[in-house]
Design goal:
mainly beta, 320 residues, Porin, 16-stranded antiparallel barrel, two-stranded antiparallel ribbon
Length: 320
Amino acid sequence: MNKTALSLAIVAMIPTLASAQEEGDVLDFYGKANVTFQSADEGDGSVTDVQSNASRLGVQGKIALTDGIYGIYRMEYEADMDGDADETFSQRNIYAGLEGGFGQVIAGKFDTPLKAAQKKVDLFNDLEGDIKSLITNSDNREEDALQYTTPSFAGFKASAAYISNKDEVINEETGEERNNGISTSIAYDNNGVYMAYAFDQDVEGQDVDVQRFVAQYNIGPVQVGALFEDQENADGENVDGWMGSVAYKIEQWTLKAQYGQSDIKKEGGETFSLGVDYKFNSAAKVFGFYTDETADTVIDDDIKITYDRSYAGIGAEYKF
């Protein structure tokens, strides 16, 4: 059975799972459809098409095991809504674990603590202005991972994930194996104030260390946020990047702006995005955005080619 057929079979089983749950157990079927009609200019002329932006289907739930202890699970698949991908469905966060007064333990494939630490600072997440486009290499979703998350103490919560290297050999001559990865974070979230520090070791690559600092503040209709990231490569070179964002809500409208600079993905990377959302309710919105990205690609010591891309689009998002 190919991956698409297997994914469709899992989705088809969801109603059966829902009817089979015991009294007191929780099962949620959820999803998001996010589609844009957009124009992209990546240096070879403008192309206008439809994009599916991390649209997804999923099921999650908990099963009461003993007093105060639950079995938890999530099976989430990205759904290709524009027909461009080779597979209609692809894996996103898929895990099972335990949850209780001790915290939470999960195993499977999921966002690393460093990725999750960004919270809602990236206002253009899943669109062309997503920070993974030009700011960072480390928004990772890793498989074969085991993670523990503490309960919340006065707004503080910490997570640590172990990521298996699966005995991957990175040097055939010496037999050197890839190190197992570690991703950790500690965050404070209380009364509209969010701050987080996260650290990855050997997740992005062998002997690559990444630090991320995040801050976000909400006051009335205004949300401001900032992210700074430092990456130390195996050769000892340090590269870094940062971004800032601001959103302002006026009744059903939200005005958004975001700007960042980074040398992590490309030397001299610079990106800015502007956007506006109109929210009908908690499940439906329409939006528009514009994103511009520039960078310098080094060919020789003194020869550079400018990287210049721009995107503009309108779209709709529906959650269920």
